[in-house]
Amino acid sequence: MLEIERVRTSIASVEVLRDFTLSVGQGQMVGLVGRNGAGKTSLMRTVMGHLPTTSGRISFDGTDLAGLPKHGRAALGIGFMQEDRGLVPELTVQENILLPVWVSKSLKPRARLDLVYGYMPELLEMRDRRALLLSGGQQKLVALARALAVGTRLLLLDEPFEGVAPALAQRLADVIGRLRAEHLSILVSHSDMNHAQSLYDDAYVIERGANATAAVH
């Protein structure tokens, strides 16, 4: 489904990805593990088109992403949960979830909300609260919900467990695990293998922007 082949990416004059290779198959859940600054966020931002590649190839279901703008990648059914959540503080929970759906030509808001609330019913109860009034963990749930609302085929989840209390981290892990039922392809990045490692079909380790090891769980 997602094929990343020997990709190189630079920010200014600093190379943040160095011939990095990774594959996520149809319906697979893959872990991307690396310490802070290893290149995890840079990889996901590169897939989404926020950072340009200098060499290598990224394809999604056979489509080369190089020529697609950021919104064109989302239109393919790719949902992106940013590490910093990226919510609009003054908008409500439901408005934040629907933001990418509103600009889609094919997604039906009611159907996507029903799916999201089915997995995270606690968000239904707080749907009219502004994002700035939520805890950090609650904001992570909303960010995951927004990614799921638009990500009909692939989810990129950047550090979903980072900075979250243990109870909410477990809740996030439970929701992510249940998403297997949707036959989604999912790439999850984090700093260690303590969270939900039993869920992964495959795991890649990134060090200084390059492949370190890969292991199947």
UniProtKB/TrEMBL annotation:
Organism whose genome encodes this protein: Tistrella arctica
Official protein name in the record: ATP-binding cassette domain-containing protein
Xref: Gene3D superfamilies: P-loop containing nucleotide triphosphate hydrolases
Family, per entry: Belongs to the ABC transporter superfamily.
Superkingdom assignment: Bacteria
Span of the signal peptide: none
ABC transporter domain location: 2-216
InterPro entries in the record: AAA+_ATPase, ABC_transporter-like_ATP-bd, ABC_transporter-like_CS, BCAA_Transport_ATP-bd_LivF, P-loop_NTPase
Entry-linked PROSITE patterns: ABC_TRANSPORTER_1, ABC_TRANSPORTER_2
Keywords associated with the record: Amino-acid transport, ATP-binding, Nucleotide-binding, Transport
GO molecular function: ATP binding
UniProt entry tagged with the keyword Transport: yes
